Amino acid sequence: MEDTSPARTEASPAVIVARGAKKHYGPIRAVDGVDLEIGAGELFGLIGHNGAGKSTMFKMMLGLIPASAGEIRIDGAAVAGNGDFRAVRRKIGYLPENVVLYDNLTGLETLHFFARLKGVPTAGAPALLERVGLAEAARRRVREYSKGMRQRLGFAQALLGNPRILFLDEPTTGLDPEAIRSFYAILRQLKGTGVTTVITSHILAEIQERVDRLAIMTAGKIQACGTVQALREQMDLPLWFTVRVAPEDFAAVRAALGHLPVGAVEARDDHVAVQCRRDAKMAVIEALASLDGKVRDLTVREPSLEDVFFGFSD
Ligand SMILES: Nc1ncnc2c1ncn2[C@@H]1O[C@H](COP(=O)(O)OP(=O)(O)OP(=O)(O)O)[C@@H](O)[C@H]1O
């Protein structure tokens, strides 16, 4: 694995460290030698296909299942059942992929229940419900909650006791766009107070603008790790320009780009789409700027995280 974001460890001490972490179930290598360092206050994404090993990695980091080999440290303490780790465990909030809630309890009772389990004061529960947008539903039974409301309640549960480290396994499943926005706004506020968050998601478009760094996991291994931009550069995927020009100027665009290492140049209704190598980007912009006002508008589309993901994981 190549970490393409060297600035990370210099800027903040590593709070989560995995070295050669493995989890094998008989012949199944659910996690197969993962090295990872996540810094204090980082918002870190873990993405991968179904069955890639993300949830297993989470469970190992939380000490819920023992590693078959390797070492994981959280806040300096080895993840194991000893006293040191129990103290660290209290600083961790966890939202599992399928949070188990009790239908007969109200939202407020649910938080009280989890607060007692976690050994933290119940007094913060109403404020947490307010924070996740469930204040109005606090006294309604969970049975009546929609999928998104249950997910928000699960998130509130993870925030009990003001954790310093959060593990959120597909936290935005079932949330509407507005709820997704508020969810990430909360994560940003928490990041501002130094909270470290690790999040998994299958919605790559949602995660790509929001995490500081991410790791792409395939078949139990980390294939790549870094900022979205660093991964784009590492993959060296082409960019797309959309050049808005009048149809009579299409030929001039082609001529201006003729000497450059550009790929496809396709004339569409009111624009020309140009695919170009990343290292030719500035030369293309200069060539278009020389067209003497013919270009009405210009947009550059970077490869999406989805493009990068398929590049690394296929
Ligand atoms: N308790 C278990 N016993 C046997 N195999 C398991 C167990 N838990 C997980 N696995 C296997 O380990 C692999 C990784 O599973 P895991 O749940 O970690 O994937 P994931 O990346 O979280 O997938 P998804 O995106 O579908 O949630 C899969 O092949 C899964 O079948």
TrEMBL record:
It comes from the Bacteria. SUPFAM superfamilies: P-loop containing nucleoside triphosphate hydrolases. Keywords: ATP-binding, Cell membrane, Membrane, Nucleotide-binding, Transport. PROSITE patterns: ABC_TRANSPORTER_1 (PS00211), ABC_TRANSPORTER_2 (PS50893). Gene3D superfamilies: P-loop containing nucleotide triphosphate hydrolases. Residues 16-244 form the ABC transporter domain. Signal peptide: none annotated. One of its GO terms (molecular function) is ATP binding. Belongs to the ABC transporter superfamily. This is ATP-binding cassette domain-containing protein. It comes from Thauera sinica.
